[in-house]
Amino acid sequence: MTFDTKSTDHDAVHVTHTISDSPLGPLTLVAHDGVLAGVHFNGGTRWPVRAMPGARDDAGFDDAIRQLDEYFRGERTRFELPLAPRGDAFQQRVWALLQRIPYGETRSYGQLAAELGDSRLARDIGVANARNPIAVIVPCHRVIGADGRLVGYAGGLERKRFLLDLEQLGVVMAYSLHSLPLPAPPSEAETVRHAHRTTAGGSDRDGP
Q1: How many percent of the chain have pLDDT more than 70?
Q2: Three-state DSSP state, 168
Q3: Distance between CA atoms of residues 142 and 104, nearest Å
Q4: Burial class (CB in 10 A: 0-12, 13-18, 19+), 204
């Protein structure tokens, strides 16, 4: 994953969004000038409820949706997408650090502060972590308290527990523990549509 640092400027940008299903409820995906800038759980504290994030436009979100689907099926452990989260320089450093936490592992705020070279930054890292606008893909769910507690998560602690269980216990155990139906494998028709969108740049996702 790469950050598009140009999109951290506060100049006017073209904002669009789409909505995609997930095992944890609908996800609102937001793009700035065609680059993914937000992934929000419905009802999460970072969900943009006060102002709809741009016009609904499903074009350009296919790669992100496909990779999220693969993640929730246990087929993907690393995302490969350009990203454009908006935040100050310190937040950008923290979000970049989150992406270096390996799949299936966790870090405490203190450990991340040590990686930045100053143990006094733990609280500031917690604030930046809470303001991460790209859930799941920028894995703020992998940050826990020093005592192993889950502590806060914008999408809710139940979702955080599921994401960690998915990564640490595997698909079957995680979905069973959380009483969720196993995700269906992609159908042949879906595979063909994904291939078509990749080569032709089109989109045939249904509206909400």
Answers
A1: 80
A2: helix
A3: 8
A4: exposed
Is residue 195 predicted with pLDDT exceeding 70?
A: no
For 50, phi then psi, to 5°, come to -75, -30
Residue 16 to residues 19, 30, 59, 92, 169, Cα–Cα distance (Å): 11, 6, 9, 22, 35
pTM value?
A: 0.84
Taking only the tens place, the pLDDT of each residue in 39-79 is 999 876 555 444 568 899 999 999 999 999 999 999 999 99
Catalytic, out of 140, 143, 163, 164? 140
Catalytic, 76? Answer: no
| Average pLDDT taken over every residue of the chain | 86
**Strand extents, DSSP E, the chain:** 2-3, 15-20, 27-32, 35-41, 55-56, 82-83, 107-108, 143-144
* Domains of the chain as residue ranges with CATH: 2-83 (3.30.160.70), 89-177 (1.10.10.10)
Tokens of 146: 């020093």
